[in-house]
Amino acid sequence: MNAEPEQGSAFYLCKTHIQELPTGHRPKTTMNAPRPPTNAVLSAVLAFGLWGVLPVYWKQIGHLGSDVALAQRVVWTMATVLPLLMLRGEWAGLGKSARDVKLLKAHAWSAFLLAINWGVFVWAAQHGRIIDCSLGYFINPLLNVLIGSRLLGERLSRLQKLSIASAACGVATQIVLVGRLPWIGLLLAGSFALYGLARRQSPLGSLPGLAMETIVGVPVAALYLIWCQQSGEAIWGAASTRDLALIFGLGIITTIPLLGFAQGARQLPFALLGVLQFLAPTGQFLVGALVYHEPVTAGSLLSFGLIWTGVLLFCGDLWHKR
């Protein structure tokens, strides 16, 4: 997604991923298309489902602080992704890409945007703002559509215009009735929409692209962790088996959903994947409201109702075009 996204922009990354596939390997989207492969559906559901419950993981390492947790995530994501690239035979291609200065600059920009997205998400999850995170990922695909029309010259359908207008009304409702700007949701949606746009400029796939971004970010993350440790901060938590396992697992919980999403993107119709992506913010909303009992006021429900209306219109438009 949360590639997460947090989860990754399913709309843009999926669209880019499909465009890069040879014609014979692109998922069929006609009405007479065969039933989607069960393993592809399960992979996509697993990816979006994991992104939906990811806040629970961040809560478990809340005592590390969001800054240390983010730095650890960058380091252990690279430690997880690089061996996977070797197993998949993509190591040589990554080495060649790492010597391309233009490509490195492009991924430095996307890494910066991803760090903002990850950092805000981790901070919000650890500070009782999970529902605000879900708002961001509900409106993210709608923001992607808006960016596509303004920057990429893509034409908006009537339903897409209505969906964006409904979501905008939802955000305005948050400001007027709830009395605050939903900055967490807007920052998450905006940073990941721009991340998706930046990733369109790179020929690398999901996993090699994530590897490039972590390679760019690891020096900064490692230096920050060294500085924190020298300042007396407990970068390994209590150094208990539980804390160490959770820290080492940061790379795994980042990579597994990304691989599941990539498999789904290769085999599923774009419309189906576009609908499934909303499993992630739905999961986040339920986790925040039901598991951690974050307050949901009448104003918040009205705001989310307008945003959910926009989501339904968006999904209806995708399904109509399949």
Tell me briefly what this model is.
The protein has 322 residues and is mainly α.
Question: What does this protein look like?
Answer:
The structure is a single chain. This protein has 322 residues and is an all-alpha fold. Helix content is 76%, strand content 0%. The chain has helices at 10-20, 38-60, 66-87, 91-98, 101-126, 130-151, 158-178, 183-199, 206-230, 241-248, 250-267, 270-276, 279-291, 298-321. The longest helix has 26 residues, at 101-126.
SSE order and pairing:
Elements: H1 10-20, H2 38-60, H3 66-87, H4 91-98, H5 101-126, H6 130-151, H7 158-178, H8 183-199, H9 206-230, H10 241-248, H11 250-267, H12 270-276, H13 279-291, H14 298-321
Helix pairs in contact: 1-8, 1-11, 2-5, 2-11, 2-13, 3-5, 3-9, 3-11, 5-8, 5-9, 6-7, 6-8, 6-13, 6-14, 7-14, 12-14
Please give the domain count. 1
Number of strands: 0
The helicity comes to over 70%
Q: Give the distance, in angstroms, between the N- and C-terminal Cα atoms.
A: 23 Å
Shape: globular
Give the structural class.
Answer: mainly alpha
As an assembly, this protein is single chain
What is the radius of gyration computed over CA atoms, rounded to a whole number of angstroms? Answer: 19 Å
Strand % is under 5%
The biggest beta sheet reads: none
> Helical segment tally?
14
Mean pLDDT: 85
Order of helices and strands: HHHHHHHHHHHHHH
| Low-pLDDT segments, ≥5 res | 8-12, 14-32
Highlighted features:
mainly alpha; 76% helix; 322 residues; 14 helices
